[in-house]
Write a structure and sequence with these properties.
The N and C termini lie far apart (64 Å). The chain is of the alpha/beta class. The protein has helices at 8-23, 25-40, 44-49, 57-71, 76-80, 101-113, 131-139, 152-164, 179-183, 208-213, 216-219, 228-240, 256-265; strands at 82-85, 88-91, 121-125, 144-149, 170-173, 188-193, 198-199, 220-221, 241-250, 269-275, 281-287. The protein binds glutamine. The site of glutamine has 8 residues, from loops.
């Protein structure tokens, strides 16, 4: 099937029919609106108003290839290279997870709980795109924020995101599972992490776009040791969290009580599970 003319309206209708087969009408339209806005700077309304907008050959090809990727269920954020998080415009690629709305809730919870005057030093472990570290720097501008990741490629993106958003944070390439490496860092008033927490057993509930394209190292843990990152980070926090400081985790909804137990075992106080907007156990916090 060929595109009838090179008028944006016709091109859009053509690709809408292609995408509908995979996504249904509503989502197909929304995905097309996103890529057209990104490629040609035309908002949703602009696309309707600019009735005579025509695409040249290069522009047509750009849409053609983007739609081809979308049909293979590639997340649109990896096509545009952009994602929004807590009001920040972030760059993303397949080396980092696309920031999730739950993680915005994590920031909001921390913001509501902690007074900015008490927080001087913050560390985010497993920063990926840098979303948590950068959002916290925005919320607590006076704090020194350190962002840690094992992946050099992820750190590259996180550094670009700091520059794009004009936020100054420090980056460290370290392995969260290596307690000696972590313990060599100084002490902090807030330790936060959204580590890999999806088990093999959860895989069949996951969507193709996540499974096929997002970095598995950032998502998955071994079914036999699903709390491996939490164990290592809480051990680090035992020695590197200042008195009066807090530790916050994003968690797999299945393990609320286990992570809570783990923090209590390590001697943290006021350990609580916090639910997300869907009523699922999603965060665990503790104090020292
Ligand atoms: N919430 C993410 C998902 O469901 C997982 C994030 C993580 O593993 N830390 O895809």
């Amino acid at each position: 099937m060929k595109v009838r003319t090179n008028l944006l309206k016709d091109v859009k209708n053509h690709y809408l029919r292609e995408l509908e087969k995979v996504y249904g009408k509503k989502e197909a339209l929304s995905l097309l609106n996103i890529i057209i806005e990104d490629f040609f700077g035309l908002t949703k309304t602009g696309q309707i108003l600019e009735k005579d907008f025509r695409l040249n050959e290069t522009e047509l090809l750009k849409i053609h290839f983007a739609v081809k990727e979308l049909k293979k269920e590639k997340p649109v954020q990896y096509i545009t290279g952009k994602a929004e998080f807590y009001g920040l415009n972030l760059k993303v690629n397949e080396n980092v997870l696309i920031p999730r709305p739950e993680t915005e809730e994590l920031i909001e919870n921390i913001k509501n709980e902690l007074s900015s005057s008490a927080i001087k030093k913050i560390i985010d472990l497993g920063t990926g795109s840098g979303c948590i570290a950068l959002a916290l720097k925005k919320v607590f501008p006076q704090a020194d924020v350190t962002a840690v990741d094992i992946s050099e490629n992820a750190l590259k993106i996180a550094m670009e995101n700091a520059a794009i958003n004009n936020l100054k944070i420090r980056f460290e390439q370290k392995d969260m599972l290596n307690t000696d490496e972590l313990n060599s860092l100084e002490t902090f008033d807030l330790i936060v992490s959204n580590p890999p927490y999806v088990t093999e057993a959860d895989k069949d509930k996951m969507q193709n776009n996540v499974l096929k394209y997002e970095p598995h190292a950032a998502l998955f843990v071994d079914d036999n040791n699903p709390l491996i990152f939490y164990k290592s980070i809480s051990e680090f926090a035992k020695s590197n969290l200042n008195t009066g400081g807090q530790i916050w985790f994003e968690i797999n909804e299945k393990y609320g009580n286990d992570v809570k137990g783990l923090l209590e075992e390590k001697g943290f106080k006021n350990v609580n599970i916090v639910k997300d907007l869907f009523g699922k156990d999603r965060f665990v916090k503790g104090k020292r």
